[in-house]
Structures are given as structure tokens and as C-alpha cells.
Amino acid sequence: MAQALTVKEHTFLWEGLDRKGAKVRGESRGPSESMIKTQLRKQGINPTKVRKKLELFGNRKKIKSGDIAIFSRQMATMMAAGVPLVQSLELIGRGHQNPAMAELIMGVKTSIEGGSSFAESLGKFPLHFDDLFVNLVDAGERSGTLETLLDKVATYKEKTEAIKKKVKKAMTYPSAVLVVAFIVTGILLYFVVPQFEDLFKGFGADLPAFTMMVISLSRFVQDQWLFILGVVGGSIYAFFYFHKRSPKMRRFLDRALLRVPVVGDILYKSAVARYARTLSTMFAAGVPLVEALDSVARASGNIVFQDAILTMKDQVSTGQQLQLTMQQSSMFPSMATQMVAIGEESGSLDEMCAKVADFYEAEVDNQVDSLSSLLEPMIMVILGVLVGGLVVAMYLPIFKLGMVV
User: Fold this and answer.
1) Transmembrane segments in this chain: where (predicted)?
2) pTM above 0.85, yes or no
3) Positive or negative torsion for Cα 86, 88, 90, 92
């Protein structure tokens, strides 16, 4: 497989003359102006003007995994229709609405025109095309079944994107509840409670303990709001910083999330579905099981599952059956293990893994919908307790005064 690029590529606008002397223009990706001129001459174009394209940071859109999934399906459709590879890339790249994605596609096209294979060209952009994607395309090119393999890649990407969105929805809903509750409480403590405090100063009587506690909390929020925002913002930044760079923290967090009620079950089943879907796709492409498990581990999305799959890979490499290693890892449900055992015995491991993936993807879908229905009343309860508690604390002195009168 091709190594990742160490030289940064840029987009160049060029003008030139073709073999018939006609003026042509376009844009290409490459590390330097001289390299672009060399590429153009190989294509029979005599370059007259080459300049680097101005790239404004504010106008660039980030390339998302969904963009790669759509690109996979577009390429599969183009190849199935008999459109040549380079022409397919040209059509998709020119028509893409995301400039960054368009440049990526044109970069792949330029690399192919320079003599590299499709897989090698994709491998030059490892941030967007992982080893699994590149390996499948490479297998398709070697076996002459690129059209079929691209369809499998597209299906795999679409399925994994769908499961990611479901998991994201399951995680976003509780987080949104907490954020809304935090913001509402902060607004009440900073703006509303002080108005009641001024009112209570004229009562000339001792306030209830609950009311005094809320007033003290309100004073703290008013005096230290910058400190509170700094702590919250710093904590969020530190969390994402160390989660990205610390395997120990990721391992602890992934393990802890799997034990969270409801949400943990969704994450667990989504990891099983991703494992089965990736293994099915790799095995159907003819990738050896040991090599496939290496890619499956990196695509698992959970470091606990990743560790378990890498251990299974070492065991499989010594001759053990996959279903036995799954049993020993204790990370997989019995249903998935039994289906894999049937697949190994019947020689249809890819089909059985695909059925496992379909089953658990449907389970995740149902549980996310159930979680949404469950959280709606919980949101009302949480906000009701917070807002209602503050309201009661403010009105207790008024009730007490009414009883005295």
C-alpha cells in the first residue's frame, strides 16, 4: 500500500495548449508548480501559465465522513455505468458542492494521471481514506472486480454512517438536557433571584434555610461567573484534549460508558454491529482473516473492543477458530458468536456476519427511538425540579409572611 504523503499538496490553476494548438485551462493538485507542468506535459499539454489557487480559510468546509460515504456510492454508481475511472473522478470532483472535497477528489485524479493506481492514490490521503477503504479498493483492482468492491465499500460506509448517527443521537439527547438545565439554572440565579433578594430585605424577618441557600448560591454566581465559565470551558477543553491524546483516559471512558444504563447497551450493540459489518465486508473482499481483524479493530469505535479484537487476532494467527476467540474474549453476545460459528462451518462467514450486523443495527435503531421517548418525560422532570425548586425557595418567605399576618 502507498505511504502517506509527506509533502503538502496545493491546488494550481493552469492554462496551456493541447496537441492541436487549442487553448485549454483547468486546475490540478500537486506539491509544486514544476510538478504540475511535468504532469501536464505527460498529458500532451504545453503549459503557458501555472499559478497557485488562492485558498481562503473562511471559505473552506471540513470534509466529513458522510462526504466520503457519498463519494463511495457515486464512484460505485459511475463504475457500474461503465464510466472510466479518471472520468468518474473528474465528473464527481467538478460537481461537488464542498470545495475541500472537490480538491480531494481532483487530487486523487491527478495522482492516477501521474501513474499511480486508484488504491495508491487514495492511500496518499490517509486522513480521509483509511486502511480498510484502501485495502478493499486494492483488492478490487488486483482481482479485476473494482466495480463490485466499490459497491461493497459504499454499502459499508453508508451502514457505518447510519449507525454513527444513531449513536450520536443517543449521546446528544442527554447532553442537551444537561446543557439546557445548566443554562436555565444559571439565568435564574443571575437575573431572577437577585430581584427577590431585594424584595426580602424589607421583610425584617429571618428567611427560611432553603431560601438562604439559594440566595447564597446566587451571590456566588454573580461574583464568580467568569471563574465558573472558565472552569466549565477549561474542563470541556481538557476533556476533549486528553480524550484525543490519552489512551488510558479513552479506555477508562469507553469502559465506563458501556456500563451506563440504556446508553451503554446502545453503545455495546453498535460496537458489535460495526465489528460484524466490517468483518463481513473485508472477508467478502477476499482479505485474509488475520489481516481483516487488524482493520476491524481500528474500525470498532471503542478502545475496549479494539483491545479484545487485537487479542483475538493474535489467537486466530496461531490457528484458533474465530468463534472460539470470540467466546474467550467475553465481549460478544452468544447470538453473534453462534452465527459466526455457523458461518465458519458452512464457509459463509461474510453472509453470517452481515446478518449479525443487520440484527444489531436494527436493535440500535429501536433502542435509540425508545430512548428518545423515555427522555422526553425525564427532561420535563429535571427542568421541573430545578425551576420549581428555585421558585419554591423564592416564595417560601412570602408564604411564611402570609401565615404570620
Assistant:
1) 173-193, 225-242, 379-399
2) no
3) negative
